[in-house]
Amino acid sequence: MADLGNPQNTIDVLKRYQFTFQKKFGQNFLIDPRVLEKIIRAAEVGGDDFVLEIGPGIGTMTQYLAETAREVAAVEIDDKLIPILEETLKDYDNVTVIHGDILKVDVEQLVQEKNQGRPVKVVANLPYYITTPIIMGLFESHVPLDSITIMVQKEVADRMRVGPGTKDYGALSLAVQYYARPEIVANVPPNCFIPRPAVGSAVIRLTRHEQPPVSVKDERLMFRLIRAAFNQRRKTLVNALHNAPELRLSKDRITETLEEMGLSSNVRGEALTLEQFARLSDLLAEGAED
Ligand code: SAM
Questions:
Q1: Could you tell me if the CB of 201 is within 6 A of ligand 1?
Q2: In whole angstroms, what is the distance from residue 273 CA to residue 93 CA?
Q3: Do residues 204 and 182 lie in contact, with contact meaning Cβ atoms separated by under 8 Å?
Q4: Backbone angles phi, psi at 287, to 5 degrees
Q5: Whose CA is nearest to atom 10 of ligand 1?
Q6: pLDDT tens-digit series, residues 57-66
Q7: Which residues have C-beta within 8 Å of that of residue 227, sequence separation ≥ 6?
Q8: What's the Cα-to-Cα distance from 201 to each of 31, 63, 169, 235, rounded to whole Å?
Q9: Which H or E run contains 260?
Q10: d(CA 86, CA 58)
Q11: Each residue of 133-175: pLDDT tens digit?
C-alpha cells in the first residue's frame, strides 16, 4: 500500500472514495511525513509496544505506527472511513480498527485484552473539539498509561504546560500536571494538514508520573475545588468556592483556611500552585461534614 504520508497518495484515496470531510468530527488529515516521523519518535514507539490511536482518519499515522509497534488498536467514529481503513491497512496484521466513539469505548477492557493490563502508549492527531474530555477521560480512568503523544491546538498545548500567573493557566494545566509531565515536541503549521485548520497546532507528549508530584488526601475534592476556582476565574477564590453549591463552603471557612496557608482572602485561584490546591483540599477536608 502506498505511503499516505505522501500528500498525492492521500488525495488519490480521498478522490477514489469521494470522501467529504466532516467538520463536526474535527477532520484534518496529516500530510507531512516529517511531522509523522517526529510524532512516532517522540512517542518512543518500539517493537514491544501496544499503541492506542484515537481517530485514524484514512490510516496515515496508523501505517507508521503499525510499522514500528507490536500491535495497534485504532478507534474511528466516522462510518465513511471504515472501508477506506480496510483498504489502506490491509497489509498489516497487527492493526485492529474499532468503529466507535472514543468517549464510549471501554479502553480499560481493551487494554486488558490486548496488552494484559500493561501500560499503553496513546498516539493521536486528536479531533480538537473533544481534546479535553479525551485526555481527562484517559487520566481519570484506570487505564494503565505510559504516555500520551498527541497533536492538539497550539493554544491548548500551551495551556497544558504553563504555571500560575499566566493567562493560559487553568484547570487543564493543573489536571495534566498532576498526572503527567508535559513536553512540547513540535509546532505544526496549518499547511501540514488537509484541509488546513484555522489554528496552529502542536505535538505534545504527556509522560505519566509514576507518583503524582503532590500528595492529596481526596483527589476528587481537589479537582472540584480547582474546577470551581476556574469556573469563575475573575472572582476571588473565596467567592468562587462559596458560589459552587456542591462544595457547601462558607466564606468564613474558606477565608480562615486561606489565612492558615498564609494567603490573602483576596487571592484568585489563578495564583495558586498545584501544591497549594492540594494543601487547601486537605485542610478543607479535615473539617468537612460527611
Ligand atoms: N489520524 C488522522 C490523521 O492524522 O490524518 C486523522 C486525524 S483527524 C484530526 C481526527 C480523526 O478523529 C478523524 O478521523 C475523525 O473522524 C476522528 N474522530 C472524531 N471524533 C471521534 C470520536 N469521538 N471517536 C473516535 N474518533 C473520532
A1: no
A2: 47
A3: yes
A4: -95, 5
A5: 127
A6: 999 999 999 9
A7: 171
A8: 14, 21, 18, 31
A9: helix 251-260
A10: 9
A11: 999 999 989 899 999 999 999 999 999 999 998 999 999 999 9
Q: Count CA atoms within 13 Å of residue 159 on its CB side.
A: 14
pLDDT single digits (tens) 192-248: 999 999 999 999 999 999 999 999 999 999 999 999 999 988 899 999 999 999 999
The SS3 call for residue 209 is coil
Q: Which residue has the cell 487571592?
A: 267
CA distance 158 to 281: 26
CA of 93 to the centre of ligand 1 (A): 22
- Residue 270 burial by CB count (10 A; 0-12/13-18/19+): exposed, middle or buried? middle
User: Would you state the cell numbers that stand for residue 29, as one nine-digit string?
Assistant: 488529515
User: Within 10 Å of residue 220's Cβ, how many Cβ atoms?
Assistant: 10
Cell, residue 139: 487520566
Q: How far is the CA of 30 from the centre of ligand 1 (A)?
A: 11
Q: How far is the CA of 127 from the centre of ligand 1 (A)?
A: 5
Q: Is 127 in the pocket of ligand 1 (CB under 6 A)?
A: yes
- Residue 167 is given by DSSP the state T
End-to-end CA distance of the chain: 61
Q: Between the CA atoms of 175, 178, 184 and 187, what dihedral angle is there, to the nearest 10 degrees?
A: 0
Among 247, 226, 118, CA closest to 176:
226
Could you tell me how far CA 141 lies from the centroid of its own chain? Answer: 13
Kindly give, in sequence order, each residue whose CB lies less than 8 Å from that of residue 256, ignoring residues fewer than 6 positions away.
none
